[in-house]
Structures are given as C-alpha cells and as structure tokens.
Amino acid sequence: MKLLRFCAVALLLPQLVFAGFEIGGDFSYFNPQLTTRIYPALASRQSTGFSGALYTGYAHFTVALPHVVTIGFGPTLAYTNQNSVDGVTIEEVSISRFGGDAKIQIETIPFLSPYLRLTLGKDTISWIDRGSVGTGRYIAESTAGGLYYSAMLGVQLPFSAEFALYAQAGYTASPGSRMLSRSYAVDGVRQTVNVPGDADTGYSGWVIGAGGRLSF
User: Fold this and answer.
1) Is the Cβ–Cβ distance between 76 and 101 less than 8 Å?
2) For all residues of the chain together, what is the average pLDDT?
3) Phi, then psi, of 116 in degrees rounded to 5
C-alpha cells in the first residue's frame, strides 16, 4: 500500500511542481538617512536631504505549485545617484548594489499575488562633496562599501502567464562600512588629505516602487 502511494506521488509530482525563470525590473522612490561617524572622537553626522530614484533588476529561477505558491531566487542589481544641497555645499552620493534575492509569492487569490521579497548583498558607496573654502572651490571624493539588506512586501497583478506588473514597499539598510578618502582638490589642485581618524558610513530608509516582470 505504501509503495502504491509513493508511486502515485512520484507520478503526480512532475505535473504539480513547475520550474521556470523570470526577469524583472522596478523603479522606486528612496529617501535614505545617511550617517557618517568619525573615530575616536565618535563625531556623528546625519543627512536626510537625499532622495531620488532607485533602479533595480533581478533574475529568478522559480519553483511553483500552481495556484498555491511560487518561490524564486537569484541575483539582483541596483543603482541610485542622489544629490543634497546645503547652502553652497553640494553632496552627491552614488550607491551600486549586487546581491542575492529571494521571493515567496502566494497564488491562491485570483488576479492578485501578494509576496515577500528578501535581499542580502554587497554595496559600493561613492561620495563627492563640492563647496567653498576661503576664496576657492573644493571637491572631495571618498568611497565606502559593505553589506546591505532589504525586506519588501508587494502585490503582483498578472496580465498573462508571461507578463505581470507589481508594486512593493519596504525597508533597506547598510549598517556601516569604512569610508576611505580618495582625493581632495581646491581650484583643481590636489591637496594632502589629513584624516583625523577612522570613519565609517551607513544608510537606511524606506522604499516604495513599482515594476514589471517577464516569465519564461
């Protein structure tokens, strides 16, 4: 009897479980709070003047139990470039991300598929500060990079088996990574950089956006 049940499950399983592949991309509004800390004085500076678009793309291998659940996992890329103006000082930050993405999507509701999406990866942060010093203009460049994570809740609206639109919102953060000064120039002349101590930087913020996906 047990052997018959095993054979029945073995015959039905390939018909019940579907494996596939999907690619997607989204455009999100991202308003990060950036924090810079300098040691050993522990001086901390927070900036909330940044906001702008976060562009994300992903590719997932998927396993699905039709009309029940779909699980996907694969690589993801993201990029944002934002500016903050404070008087005569202009700060520009660029964040590039590469990580692993996982999604579990509920398929039991007709015409609507809620999902949870989790991401963990590595980011690279580039800073450019422009401002005035004395009668001249300076440009300071620095970089940082470390681990980042995000957690998103969303809903997907399928228009066909191959195409769907989705909307999502969630939280993302990079806890902190060492900041390295790359260059400092006044009126185009490179200057010696005197670093008062080790520094690190991190960011966190809420993300809301929408995108589309193609399944194969």
Assistant:
1) yes
2) 84
3) -120, 130
Q: What would the two tokens of residue 141 be?
A: 């460049």
Q: Is the pLDDT of residue 57 over 60?
A: yes
3-state SS of the chain?
CHHHHHHHHHHHHHHHCEEEEEEEEEEEEECCEEEEEECCCCEEEEECCCCEEEEEEEEEEEEEECCCEEEEEEEEEEEEEEEEEECCEEEEEEEEEEEEEEEEEECCCCCCEEEEEEEEEEEEEEEEEEEEECCEEEEEEEEEEEEEEEEEEEEEEECCCCEEEEEEEEEEEEEEEECEEEEEEECCEECCCCCCCCEEEEEEEEEEEEEEEEEC
Taking the CA atoms of 44, 50, 55 and 60 in sequence, report the sign of the dihedral they define.
positive
Q: Is the torsion defined by CA of 50, 51, 56, 62 positive or negative?
A: positive
What is the pLDDT at residue 168? 98
Res 43 pLDDT > 60: no
> Which amino acid, residue 206?
W
Residue labelled with tokens 């810079």: 36
- Contact assessment for residue 154 and residue 166, using Cβ atoms and an 8 Å cutoff: yes
Q: What is the pLDDT of residues 131-143, one digit of tens each?
A: 777 777 878 888 8
What is this structure's pTM?
Answer: 0.81
Q: How far is CA 164 from CA 54, 59, 72, 73, 100, in A?
A: 20, 14, 15, 17, 22
- Phi and psi for 14 in degrees, rounded to 5? -60, -25
The tokens of 6 are what?
């095993």
